[in-house]
Amino acid sequence: MQMVRVICIVDDEEELVYNLKLELEALRPDWDVMGFSSGLLAIQEIMKGTVDLVLTDIAMPDMDGYELYWRVKDYDSTLPVIMMTGFGYDPNHVLVRAKVDGLQDILYKPFDIERLVDLIDQRLRPLEP
């Protein structure tokens, strides 16, 4: 029996969240993709314990990706987090700080959807029973 995996996308660009959700669910029908335009709303869902992986943007108005990353890791250090950014250079060194703190995966927008799916598959694999 295939387990449904819950992917949480967090990005203040609502159109991007919507399109990513459609693309991911089309490529992986066994994924339940939830989209949030706010880090605060996302963290409330994550703390329910139903999310298997978090895909977050870095620059968001209410909570940046680094703060969200820290809140996720504080809640569950094993929950995989992938950060995405439209910035080639990170003026606030968010990526540098997050990498020092254990962040493994960064995607630069625009990215190839197949690459994202492969990366999510890699991160979810250790969770398989």
Question: Mind sketching the topology for me?
Answer:
Elements: E1 5-10, H1 14-27, E2 31-36, H2 39-46, E3 53-57, H3 65-75, E4 81-85, H4 94-100, E5 105-108, H5 113-124
Parallel strand pairs: 1-2, 1-3, 3-4, 4-5
Overview of this protein structure:
Helices cover 40% and strands 20% of the residues. The protein is of the alpha/beta class. The protein has a single domain (5-127), classed as Rossmann fold (3-Layer(aba) Sandwich), CATH 3.40.50. It has a five-stranded parallel β-sheet with strand order 2-1-3-4-5, with helices on both faces. Helix 1 links the parallel strand 1 (5-10) and strand 2 (31-36). Helix 2 (39-46) packs parallel to helix 3 (65-75) and helix 3 packs parallel to helix 4. 31% of the residues are buried.
Evaluate the radius of gyration: 14 Å
Name the CATH superfamily classification.
Response regulator
Helicity, in percent? Answer: 40-55%
Low-confidence parts: none
What coarse outline follows from CA principal-axis ratios?
globular
CATH class: Alpha Beta
The major sheet is characterized as: 5 strands, parallel
Strand line-up in the sheet with most strands: 2-1-3-4-5
**SSE run:** EHEHEHEHEH
Report the sheet-strand fraction.
15-25%
How many DSSP H or I helices? 5
